[in-house]
Automatic annotation (TrEMBL), chains A, B:
It comes from the Archaea. SMART domains: HTH_ICLR. Residues 10-69 form the HTH iclR-type domain. It comes from Salinadaptatus halalkaliphilus. PANTHER family: HELIX-TURN-HELIX TRANSCRIPTIONAL REGULATOR, ICLR FAMILY (PTHR30136), HTH-TYPE TRANSCRIPTIONAL REGULATOR RV1719 (PTHR30136:SF35). The keyword Transcription regulation applies. The keyword Iron does not apply. GO terms for biological process: negative regulation of DNA-templated transcription. It holds the Pfam family IclR_C. Keywords: DNA-binding, Transcription, Transcription regulation. Residues 70-254 form the IclR-ED domain. This is IclR family transcriptional regulator. One of its GO terms (molecular function) is DNA binding.
Length: 255, 255
DNA sequence: TCCAGGAGTTCGACGATGCAGAACGCTTAA
DNA sequence: TTAAGCGTTCTGCATCGTCGAACTCCTGGA
């Protein structure tokens, strides 16, 4: 099963996490569901799930196993471990309030962007449901801003590893185009997303660096093309975001 | 190593999660640190950590391994899976805004209370750092409110499993006292915490149930004894919270 | 410059342990 | 009453996780 992995790894651990991911994907599953889904013997799935439950990583309700809140605990701890994350959260909230659009903060992990905070202007649409979601780094404003802060070697690594898949007809899929785009971002200080990720959506992103110039993450604000145009899109928003990123960097430096 | 666990479980998985928990506890560790911490051979720790990194559950920076954001992803997904959680979050925010005190929503897992949302009135102190934290269910307002909604058998199970450890001199450590306290909560509709968890802190908790009467979680608001007294503590707050819980239950029922 | 110490990595051999499959009991539906 | 489906338990086999040794790389001190 799934033997595309290198040798020399702990196979049992792979099946353990395969099971957890199956539970996430199925939104909870019974023993035999999991077993057939992964091609395991029923007894094996049973043993794994029982162990996961004893370790308190999985809860069982009426025979249906689901991931437990311990993942949330570990996730929150890794998120808040760095004080800078709290500062970034404030800025995300501020941006959402000022622009009344959707704003988010992402960091890079394994060559992809990961949503760390997100907020929206209107209270009603307020949802955190995509926190932790991984997005292709080359097709989002925040992702490109982040890429621009990385070293050339790291950029090459990421492109080699993840490729440049097209998400819409506007996605940049050519490496040299992307590189010159990144050059432009470094000059301007901010990045633009022109429906490269989703048709009908534009966005502006700004990188955020630590005091010593090492990359930290990126802020972005996104909205519909009919609102994101003209002076707002070309001047007001970029200036607001550059200012916000600058404040954030100063806050980080002196905290 | 650590052989107090039952036979018939997947031992390798236990060491895998032991390693993850060690990384959480140490806030990142090197291979040999983890190995000596858990009494493993260096090569074993190496193999596990390499596997965890390949599975993208752990990131490595300059030889130091840390839990990755995938835990956050799984945690957020389990939290937001149930739509009711979003509704609960709104109420936590509302309570924090109205009372200008700390408010939280907890659910029960493995016989303990788990913070699912938390908010505080003043923006400055706004921190989510304790999300996911597990608390003794008998020594908190929300915990007792939650306990009061459970079946007698489940209550017995929890007490047998977790015991009633004293956290302060006011903690209820006697089972029959706790049971009559729960009876009172069922009558009144809300619970009170009189410095049972932390000296100097009082709190009020209300249970939240699904439309069919099954337990969902509990809301609570906590504050310092010098503010939590008199009419506020005896009337205003309880009424506010009972109303809020009632609204929440209605929202849940018709969503 | 050389050596010593510590860290990460690789390798091989042993035996613990994870795995599949069968068998059993329970519940549900026909 | 029976059959199907599910969870649970057990047992034997061979896989695979474990340890320890050996090697390299890096760093700091003499």
């Amino acid at each position: 099963m799934a033997s595309e992995h290198e040798r020399g790894r702990v196979k049992t651990m792979e099946t353990a996490f395969d099971i957890i991911e199956t539970l996430v994907a199925l939104d909870g599953g019974r023993i035999s569901e999991v077993a057939s889904e992964l091609g395991l013997a029923k007894s094996t799935a049973h043993r794994h799930l029982t162990t996961l439950e004893e370790l308190e990583y999985v809860v069982v309700d009426d025979g249906v196993y689901r991931p437990g809140l311990r993942f949330l605990q570990i996730g929150e701890q890794t998120r808040t471990r760095q004080e800078a994350y709290e500062l970034a959260k404030e800025k995300v909230t501020d941006l959402a309030a000022e622009t009344e659009e959707r704003s988010q903060f992402i960091v890079e992990e394994y060559g992809r962007g990961v949503y760390v905070f997100r907020d929206t202007g209107q209270r009603a649409v307020h949802t955190d449901s995509e926190i932790g979601k991984r997005i292709p780094i080359h097709a989002t404003a925040a992702g490109k801003a982040l890429l621009a802060t990385l070293s050339d070697e790291r950029i090459t690594e990421i492109i080699d590893h993840r490729g440049l898949p097209a998400l819409t007809e506007h996605t940049i899929t050519d490496e040299s185009t992307l590189r010159s785009e990144l050059e432009g971002i470094r000059d301007r200080g901010y990045s633009i997303n022109q429906q490269e990720n989703t048709i009908g959506l534009r966005a502006i992103g700004v990188p955020v660096e630590h005091g010593d110039g090492t990359p930290f993450g990126a802020l972005s604000v996104s909205g519909p093309t009919h609102r994101f145009q003209g002076t707002l899109f070309e001047e007001t928003l970029p200036n607001l975001m550059l200012g916000t990123a600058n404040e954030l960097e100063l806050n980080i430096q002196y905290s």
